Each structure stands twice: as C-alpha cells, then as structure tokens.
Amino acid sequence: MNAALQDRLRSELDARRAAAGLRRDLVVSGPQGPTVGMDGETLVNLAANDYLGLAAAPEVLESARRALRGMGLGVSAGRVLCGSREIHGELEAGIAELVGAEDAVLYTSCFDANLGVFDALLGQEDVVFSDALNHASLIDGMRLASARRHVFAHADLDDLERLLAGSADARNRVIVTDGVFSMDGEIAALPRLRELARRYDAALMVDDSHATGVLGPTGAGTAERFGLHGGVDVLTGTLGKALGAAGGFVAGDRAVVETLRQVSRPYVFTNAMAPPLAAAALTAIRLVRERPELRERLAANTAWLRAALRDLGYKVLPGDHPIIPVMLPGGTAARDVASAVRRDGVLAFALSHPVVPVGEERIRVQVSAAHTIDQLELAAAAFGRARAVLAGS
Ligand SMILES: *Cc1c(COP(=O)(O)O)cnc(C)c1O
Q1: 348 and which of 30, 46, 197, 246 could share a cystine (Cβ 3.0–4.6 Å)?
Q2: Ligand 1 mutation pick, 111, 206, 364, max ligand atoms within 8 A of CB
C-alpha cells in the first residue's frame, strides 16, 4: 500500500471517527421481512422499504428459482451484447404498463438509472431544475451531464417559477423531483409541478422509488395518486423497494426510452440484470396488480402506527405514506430512543446530520403490509417505554 495514500486515509478516518463516529453496516440474518434476525434475536423490522411485503413472498421467490433453473444467475454480458433474455423485455413491458408509459428500460439499480438518464437526454444547451432535497443519485446524474442545473428551494414553486422564467434561452427545460421524499415521506405536488411545466414548456421528470407499487389505486405511483396516471414525461424508479427485488428503470415515451438504449452509459456498459431478479420483479408487478388488498393493509397499518405514536406524545409529521418521521430534534434524543426500542426488540433508524439538517433529527419508521397487528403493538409499546429515555435527558 502506498504510504502517502494510506496515511491520508487513516488520518481522515480518525477525524471522522472523532467527529461523528464511523458508520457500521448492520448485519441481519435470514430473509427481509416484517421481522429480522439480529445477534440471535428477532426484531420487529421498521427499517426496510419492503412496503408490500413482497421481498419474501413465496410467488416472487419461486419465479426467481424457476428463472435460475432455466437461465442461470449471471449472464456475463451486457444487454447490447448477448446478455438480453426475453424476461428483460417482458419486465420492461410490465413496468411500462404499470406506470402508464409507452415503454421502459431496465438498469441494474435506480441509482444507475439516475446516473444514466441526464447525460443521455440533455446537452449543454439544456437546463435542469432540481428540488433541493432530491435523492443523491439524481444529484450525481445531473453532475455527470453537461446541462446547466438550477436548484430550487424544497417544494417552493415560486422559486421554481422564478428560475424557469429566467431561462428562456434554454433549448429544453426539465423539472426534476422525487415523487416521495425519503426522509419524511412527503409527496411532491405533482399537479402544480405539471402545470408549471406546461406553462414553461418544460418536461417533468420524477424519481418514484418510494411510490412505485405503493401510491395510487393500482400502485402506479405518485402521478396516479393525483389522478394523473401516465402524466410524467420521464419516470425513474426502483425494483428494490415495494417490488421486493432489485434493479431500476426509466419509463417514458418511445423516443426517450430508445435514446437511452442507444447512448445511456450505465445501460450500454454494464452487465444485464440477472434473469432471476427480472423474473422476481415481474411477478411482484403482477401481485401489485392482482392484490390491491396489500395496499389496503399497508394503509391501515400505517394509519394505526401513526396514530399510536402520536397518542404516545411523539411528534409525527403529517401524511399517509408508510415512511413515518418521528421528530426528535436536538442532541442525541433520536439516537437514544432508537437504541431504547432496539433493546426492546424493534429496529428503527435515527437520522441525523448530514442526512437531515441539524435540529431536524428524527427516527424514520417504515411500515409494511406484512406487519401483523401484534408486531405493530409490540413496536408501539417499545416506543411508549422509550419515552422514559426522553424524560431523563
Ligand atoms: C432508494 C432510492 C434510489 C436508489 O434505488 P436503488 O434501486 O436501490 O439504486 C434512487 N432514488 C430514490 C429517491 C430512492 O429512494
């Protein structure tokens, strides 16, 4: 190891350790689900994005097994070489149908989709307008592209309009937002964003990672929730949250999708998605369509836990998304409560700076349709006992 590089990295790690402590990956055992195994214990899992409980659904896992038997695991080639299988095209058609788009294209993850979409569709004559709280992958994707970038204050449509009005010289304009903001479950005001986009001849791009399968009567996502099914020009999303598999996609009209297939670097220069993952995601999409009761159960579980936490005296940001932000601002309150419920058999993460602003520390609780009422009651009881930690601080 080069000593100069090693010395610098070690001293930077020491500084980081001293300032905020080092992040440690939590290691759980067994499958993802409403409970997870950890250190020989079983914890109620309020930390996963498995909103519909599809990660461990028998039908999803069986379709992956069947694909594994028929096609193997890795394909050792990109889509543009000999990596494509029929299942990839079927999944792309399934995604397009779900979200109400003409077509869709797969990526290895939504992070990759967001890295690949801006540079492929836009040039230096174009301008992107980005919400200040957009996901890191959108920010990195915009950095990789030559288009100019304007950041508007979070959900501030006046600020956005001011920026739109000031860039009349642009060839194309694109407004970019998360459909659901992952730190607080807040849903973007798509009707007003779309209206502004119309007025300024801009395209609307939405990253619907926390909404696909979750929001709207058929699980089509944020647009459908507002009665605007198919009303987004460029939609990116993940197969790794509510759909319980892994992978990402971009959906839109044929010209968008065909352009990405031709020139999007994380599509062209990487291996095709493993066929068992594609098969699992396709089955998950079928279950999203065939089992609306999963979304009903998710809504009921979310409403129950939100009310229970509020009744215990916690400040919960309003909303109805299964991301429940429990606000515990200042000092170590969020971390202390997360540690207390963890000792009591409940897994939920505290978020602090730099993930959220100083003074907005919180615990992010995430609900699944797979949680039983017993599990939710156990979680609420743990949060109730944890209030003693707050009283003592
Ligand atoms: C989780 C998430 C991603 C990344 O999705 P992966 O498929 O896991 O890479 C991208 N954007 C948003 C808004 C997300 O929440």
Answers
A1: 46
A2: 111
Tell me, using a 6 A CB cutoff, whether residue 276 lines ligand 1. no
For residue 149, pLDDT over 70 is answered with yes
Contact assessment for residue 115 and residue 142, using Cβ atoms and an 8 Å cutoff? no
Can you tell me the distance from the alpha carbon of 244 to that of 265, in angstroms, rounded to the nearest whole number?
26
| CATH code for the domain in which residue 306 is found | 3.90.1150.10
210, 215, 238: which to mutate for ligand 1, most atoms within 8 A of CB?
A: 238
Whether residue 39 is found in the same domain as residue 183: no
Range of the domain at 172: 58-290
Which one-letter DSSP state was computed for residue 293? H
Q: Report the CATH number at residue 207.
A: 3.40.640.10
User: Is 182 in the active site?
Assistant: yes
What are the residue ranges of helices labelled H in 170-319? 190-199, 222-225, 254-263, 265-268, 275-290, 292-311
Q: Summarize pLDDT for 343-378 with one digit per residue, the tens.
A: 999 999 999 888 888 999 999 999 999 999 999 999
Does residue 207 have its Cβ closer than 6 Å to ligand 1?
yes
- The fraction of the chain above a pLDDT of 90, given in percent, is 92
pLDDT in tens, 299-334: 999 999 999 999 999 999 999 999 999 999 988 999
